């Protein structure tokens, strides 16, 4: 986990549970009320979306792929989401859901008809409720101001820990599936494997994927895409932090300092101007990732002319723009290339006019140019799946905060665009990982 802001961590307790974490989908469009597909508004508890699909497919005697859904929802939460199933298969569907409610925490809230099957991404966003506990008045004051500040100024759109499975290693299965068709990997992962050798071991049982269904294999590949995106986004946050902390001259010194170290040992990487990271076989995966990111960022700085360094350091916002960034109007719109990160463009970005995008590696990828493309190249890999672009920076909206001092609890309400993780937002606010029992790798 990498943090975009410099405030101190906020102490409180987050129970990743159905009572304290509630999610409601916000549909992208109004349903027509007629058509060949039955739209089901379903509330579930303690079930993943895939588990929900499997249960409903079995209950209606349907193949799982015939059920449409707009987004994946957290298992450890109370979530309301929309599904679509062929209308011809929905005779007595109320009775079927009544039977399901006896065995599972599933409830049908509403239904209608529509002309099209729901597709992943057919979602405006999600509305969240989060309850935080064991929050004293001092930390409650910090939380209120930090929550409002980050909601207004935005946060890095990291994929949440849920994307990577219980042990955080789903991306390794996706890597294995990708390498069956192309052995090439990204420079980032190649360097990471040097620091963390188990990632390059084909005998690792994590690489055995034959027992999984096609749908799960596709999910593992998407996890691999997400892992590379998160690495790229961490690199952009690292560059932004260095640009705020150092002058252009100091950035040059940082790059030169790194160059001397790399000529002696290419696996050494600067974490600041005075110290270096020395990897070992016992290095944790997160430490190895941090070292790789610092290495790749320093290499990137070495290639920049003085005028580019000055442009980086002159930008006031938390996320630094790069010439050539492939951006998208926010919260919806078309992609466009940012030719130059001028002051006017920085202001437009800060006002939520657009956001840079990062790659989900795959086939027919539309890539950025010049400086942005140069950095992104280190995080791309040939993956046998469709490519896409994802917002690098997003904003929370419609935020509400309520502190209950007698209970030492805070209640947070907020909305996020489609694809953004509430847990990633909370991690930036609280400045700590929320992953349950993060694996020691």
UniProtKB/TrEMBL annotation:
Keyword tRNA processing listed: yes
Q: What is its EC number?
A: 5.4.99.27
What is any one of the record's Gene Ontology cellular component terms? cytosol
Tell me the keywords, alphabetical order.
Isomerase, tRNA processing
Q: Which residues form the active site?
A: 74
Against Gene3D superfamilies, the record matches this protein to:
TruD, catalytic domain
Q: Which PROSITE patterns match?
A: TRUD, UPF0024
Query: GO biological process annotations for this chain's record?
Result: tRNA pseudouridine synthesis
Q: Which reaction does it catalyse?
A: uridine(13) in tRNA = pseudouridine(13) in tRNA
Reported function: Responsible for synthesis of pseudouridine from uracil-13 in transfer RNAs.
What is the designated name of this protein?
tRNA pseudouridine synthase D
Which gene carries the instructions for this protein?
truD
